[in-house]
């Protein structure tokens, strides 16, 4: 074979690789339905925010938390209240984006935040007073952090691209459960407010915050319902320890009442905020079904018992490397500690709504 023919073939081979490689990159970029993902929330979405909050008592940056967590070169405890990935991780993974970093992390700067941030703080709620003694970042402060992020993009990529990122990003909101747990466990709050009054108080705080995000340019919102908090092992231990095969009905009723009002409020917001799109993800129904019918989803352990320690009360600092009885495989469990779901459970939960979320917001 002549030198000229060999050179020609080598040129065509390289050209083919370059073309197909470029096409692959183009397709991958186009397959991402959102340029960025932002999360606001509490412990179901905290990926390490509280690690960087001075004196915060609501942390999970120690074993056995994170023992099964893998994200590239990152492994082990990160601040996630689970054995591995949680809600925002599975959402990001399903829309082909990197896991959004904690907003207050020293590494969350420059290019690291172009594809989103996470402001979720374990223990927090929409209400500023919820668990304020634990050193948490309430929803209103988280929204201000998101506004800061929106504005910071201009300096990173310019006005035009920043506006597109902000407008087309997915804004996940996963909070309110701690507000409800605080009310259900407090005679003081129950004497001060009826259930309906307290629910209104939460929503009257949520609405202006969501409007604030909209004012900053946000248009695509995914709001999760409160999950089945009455089915958590810790709540069962606290309120009905001898009835472990049932969820705490009073708490379940409160959560359902709130979710109904929350969904109606979100639908009203979409009608009033021009150009906005809202998706309300029902996490309550699936978490009830997971509790009562675990085998249907491949879970093989008593769902009223968590993996960590005795599985009945351990959470946060009481779920640690010295906790006696911690399971060897969390894949069989619904709950990792007495309040928070396992990686396996989160995969199932997100799997029930992610396709519909993408269709609805695109």
Brief description of this entry?
It contains 12 helices and 7 strands. The protein has helices spanning 3-30, 87-94, 139-157, 159-168, 177-184, 187-192, 195-215, 233-239, 249-272, 283-292, 343-351, 354-361, and strands at residues 37-41, 70-71, 74-75, 116-118, 170-174, 220-224, 277-281. This is GDSL esterase/lipase.
Number of domains: 1
The name of the CATH architecture is 3-Layer(aba) Sandwich
What value does the average pLDDT take?
A: 92
E-strand count: 7
Major sheet: arrangement of strands: 4-1-5-6-7
Helix and strand composition category = alpha/beta
**Major sheet details:** 5 strands, parallel
Cα-atom radius of gyration? 22 Å
Estimate the helix proportion, in percent: 40-55%
Number of helices: 12
Distance between the termini: 54 Å
Q: What is the H/E order?
A: HEEEHEHHEHHHEHHEHHH
CATH fold-level assignment? Rossmann fold
Low-pLDDT residue intervals, each spanning 5 or more residues: 1-30
Taken as a percent bin, the fraction of beta residues is 5-15%
State the fourth-level CATH superfamily: SGNH hydrolase
